[in-house]
Each structure stands twice: as structure tokens, then as C-alpha cells.
Design goal:
With about 130 residues, this protein is of the alpha/beta class. Helices cover about 45% and strands about 20% of the residues. α3 links the parallel β3 and β4.
Length: about 130
């Protein structure tokens, strides 16, 4: 992942809650990042990544559809090696689903997400991985 610059970094937002999806998109854009796509299912994440080249995917673990966020992230890791930041409102799933460790997400954030926390963490994570 590249270091943040004046143009920001590029993201795909994968969240099935419309309000949270819009919140994440707005915060990223206002901070100068590019949102290449907002999607609400695991299948849509894979389609979006196939046609864009995001620096990172913000991924809800509990996406609706046939493929949840963990399953989509596993495929992203195998096929594209794109970094993922997981979002979840259920901390129990982090202990129950052993696949999450295999994915090696950049981070896992518990909802609700504070915009200032998110921006600080993104800045820290992008600095660490550059």
C-alpha cells in the first residue's frame, strides 16, 4: 500500500448498511481519498476489485448475499493480495472465525466507527505499510 499523498489513497467500501456505507464514503472523500466503489455484498466486492485497483478494501465481515466479508476477503487475498480492513459490530465473530487470522487484515475495527479514529488509523496503517 502506498503512503498517503495529496490525492489520497483509493478504497472500495463494502458495507451492507446504507447509512454506514455513506458515512465511510463521505469521510474518505472529505479527507481527500478516492472511493472507487461502494458495494453491499461479497460478490460485488470481487467484481469491483476486478475492474479497479484499490489500495485497500474496507470490508464489513457480515455482508449480505451468498458470500460474507470473510469469504470475499479470502478470495481477495488469494487472487489480488489487496489489503483489507474488517469492520464488524460483533466482536464475538473475531474469536469464532479462525479464517480471519489467515487473511491477515490490516486492522479490524468495531462499529460504530468514529470518523477521527478512522482517519488516524488509516494514516498510521498507510505509514506502516509503505
Amino acid at each position: 500500500m502506498k503512503e498517503p499523498n495529496k490525492q489520497g489513497n483509493s478504497f472500495i467500501v463494502a458495507e451492507d448498511n446504507f447509512v454506514i456505507n455513506m458515512f465511510l464514503e463521505t469521510v474518505l472523500i472529505e479527507e481527500g481519498h478516492q472511493v472507487l466503489a461502494t458495494v453491499n455484498s461479497g460478490e460485488a466486492v470481487l467484481s469491483a476489485v476486478a475492474t479497479t485497483a484499490p489500495d485497500c478494501v474496507l470490508m464489513d465481515i457480515g455482508l449480505s448475499g451468498r458470500m460474507n466479508g470473510v469469504e470475499a476477503a479470502l478470495l481477495l487475498r488469494q487472487e489480488y493480495n489487496i489489503p483489507v480492513i474488517f469492520l464488524t459490530g460483533n466482536s464475538d465473530i473475531l474469536r469464532r472465525d479462525s479464517r480471519i487470522k489467515d487473511i491477515q487484515p490490516l486492522a479490524t475495527w468495531l462499529k460504530p466507527i468514529d470518523d477521527q479514529f478512522m482517519l488516524r488509523e488509516l494514516q498510521r496503517l498507510f505509514r506502516q505499510t509503505s
